[in-house]
Amino acid sequence: MIRSASPAGVTLLQAAALLPPVAVAVLARGAGAAAVLAVALLSTLIWDLVFARARAGSLAWHSVTTGLILAVAVPPDVPLWQVALAASFGVVLGEQVFGGRGFGFLSPAVAALAFLAFSFPGTGLAGAEPAVAAATVPGLALLFAAGLVFWRLLAGFALGLCLATLLASGALPGPSLGVSLAFGAVFLIADLVAAAATQAGRWIHGLIAGGLVVLLAGMGPVNALVFAALLASLAAPLVDHLVIRALARRRDGRRRHV
Q1: How many beta carbons lie within 10 A of that of residue 84, not counting itself?
Q2: Burial label, 163 (beta-carbon count in 10 A; 0-12, 13-18, 19+)
Q3: What angle (nearest 5°) sits at the alpha carbon of residue 216, between those of residues 162 and 153?
Q4: Sign of dihedral through CA atoms 35, 37, 40, 43?
Q5: pLDDT bucket at 104, cuts 50 / 70 / 90
Q6: C-alpha angle with apex 145: 190 to 2, nearest 5 degrees?
Q7: For 108-117, 177-186, 205-214, which range has the lowest pLDDT when averaged over its residues?
Q8: Helices 7-29 and 64-73, axial angle in degrees (round to 10)
Q9: Confidence class of residue 255 from pLDDT cuts 50, 70 and 90?
Q10: Residue 1: what pLDDT?
Q11: What pLDDT is attached to residue 94?
């Protein structure tokens, strides 16, 4: 695993993982998707440049991954000004106000998609076509090999989704739901910035996200995924805090018995 990749290296690996599903989505949806891609990338890069100038630093290119995720998750018929507004919100309030990549606790892509779905209720987010879900697999393998996605979080998410669905309907989720959630599970739920940092915390984070997808199912699978990712990421710091406290208490208890 690549455990010491630089921030630029992390961005490059994430962008490489996103290229196959983005290419498939643009080819399948046509010119509208290409326009969404162009506007999302331009909007995010402009804000990267603005904050780089304000901080007297160099352009980091981190927001490229946010633009690529939006190209897959935003339908091609969404007005481009809404795409630009959502991308700007995600990058500025989801990342840059905290100091940039590595300093925040929210996925800027999740923040952008939540803003779009909440601010423009008539806008449905795009579901992942089977080809897009299949194109996610090579990127997942790359990110896993690089240590940039955590199997415990994804396993916890799948387990939470199955348990919550079983409790709600008495049946396990069907394959079509898995296809709809495949891309989002890898690039939204398991986002490196928003994920829990402890081993046990990643299981809990995944379980929370999976359960929330079922709880919010009335919003539609993709919208439910976005808001589940947002709420689970907000809970992640508390989850890590509780896990660390529990481990410290266990360690102190062992010391007292020595």
Answers
A1: 17
A2: middle
A3: 45
A4: negative
A5: confident
A6: 100
A7: 177-186
A8: 30
A9: low
A10: 42
A11: 86
pLDDT tens-digit series, residues 220-246: 878 899 999 999 999 999 999 999 999
- What confidence score (pLDDT) does residue 149 get? 93
Rounded-to-integer distance, Cα 107 and Cα 209, Å: 14
CA distance 135 to 20: 5
CA dist 227 and 118 (Å) reads 10
Rounded Cα gap, residues 27 and 47, in angstroms: 27
Torsion of CA 75, 81, 83, 86, to 10 degrees: -140
Residue 56 backbone dihedrals phi, psi, to 5 degrees: 55, 40
- The rounded distance, in Å, linking the Cα atoms of 64 and 48 is 9
Rounded Cα–Cα distance for residues 3 and 156 (Å): 22
pLDDT above 70 for 3: no
pLDDT at 2: 44
Exposure class string for 199-236: b at 16+ Cβ within 10 A, else e: ebbbbbbbbbbbbbbbebbebebbbbbbbbbbbbbebb
